[in-house]
Amino acid sequence: MNYRDVAFVKYKGVKVSNICYRNVLDTVTAMVQQGNRGYICLTDVSNLIAATTNEPLRYAINESFLSLADGTPLVWYAWLVGCKEIERISGARLLHDFLADLKGCRHYLLGDTERTIERVIAKAREINPDILITGYSPPFKEFDAEDNRQMIGRIKNANADVIWVCFGGVKQECWMRENLASLDRGIMIGVGAAFRFLIGDIVTPPLIFQKMGLQWLFRLVHEFVRTPLRGIKIIRQRNILGSKVSYLVSLPSEVKAARRTLRDKS
């Protein structure tokens, strides 16, 4: 499947791709085989709402070749508009399934700590014993030009096909957009906390919470039980509650506008 053929809808000007996992796999496989370059964003409600006022983030998401719905509420929105193919694809699921399903690809892990990368590599080899995978933990700071040169150089030296970027929401999307032109080839995928999910440092919410679109609430309560101060920090940094309210308030008008746009195009 050609990525240019993937339809999308927009919520307040922010792209969400109408695509299922199987077609994501086929699209990335084809791009790797053709030696193309590009990047994928995993877009949840918090990032989507942030992108409505954060111009660099909005440009980064909209210029990605895929903006996957990493949140059940975004899938509901797309269904209401009339999208048929879309399904929720979390960063954790995409990482796990690509490690198993992408055959003959060289994977590169970028972000988090050296210890986390070592554990992810070990887990990846349990999932796929033949996998080719390495990685690098960059400095925990705002990256300067030298940091970027170091990271891009390491990716090129590894001849990576798929680069898993784990810098956290907003930072990873903007970094991928800003550094795409420096790559000769390879598909970057911004996956947030997926490394920690894969190795079990973060608990995956039960399926019922995921289907109800409340995986964020499960994770937040779990974090408060473990470390209340970190839970408060997450709420403030990610604007979790405010973004959900903003999304729901605008949902009816956005569905109406998107349906009108689709009618005008047909």
Rg is: 18 Å
Largest sheet: 6 strands, parallel
Distance between the termini: 22 Å
| Tally of helical runs | 13
Give a topology summary.
Blueprint: E1 8-11, E2 14-17, H1 21-33, E3 37-43, H2 45-51, H3 55-63, E4 66-69, H4 72-81, H5 91-101, E5 106-111, H6 114-127, E6 132-136, H7 145-157, E7 162-166, H8 171-179, E8 186-190, H9 194-198, H10 207-211, H11 215-226, H12 228-238, H13 240-265
Parallel strand pairs: 3-4, 3-8, 5-6, 5-7, 7-8
Antiparallel strand pairs: 1-2
Question: How would you describe the overall organization of this protein?
Answer:
The chain has 266 residues and is α/β, with parallel strands linked by helices. The protein is built from 13 helices and 8 strands. β5, α6 (114-127) and β6 form a beta-alpha-beta unit. The mean pLDDT is 87.
Tag the structure with descriptive keywords.
266 residues; alpha/beta; six-stranded parallel β-sheet; two-stranded antiparallel ribbon; 13 helices; 8 strands; globular
Q: How would you summarize this macromolecular structure in one to three sentences?
A:
The protein has helices at 21-33, 45-51, 55-63, 72-81, 91-101, 114-127, 145-157, 171-179, 194-198, 207-211, 215-226, 228-238, 240-265; strands at residues 8-11, 14-17, 37-43, 66-69, 106-111, 132-136, 162-166, 186-190. By secondary structure, the chain is an alpha/beta fold.
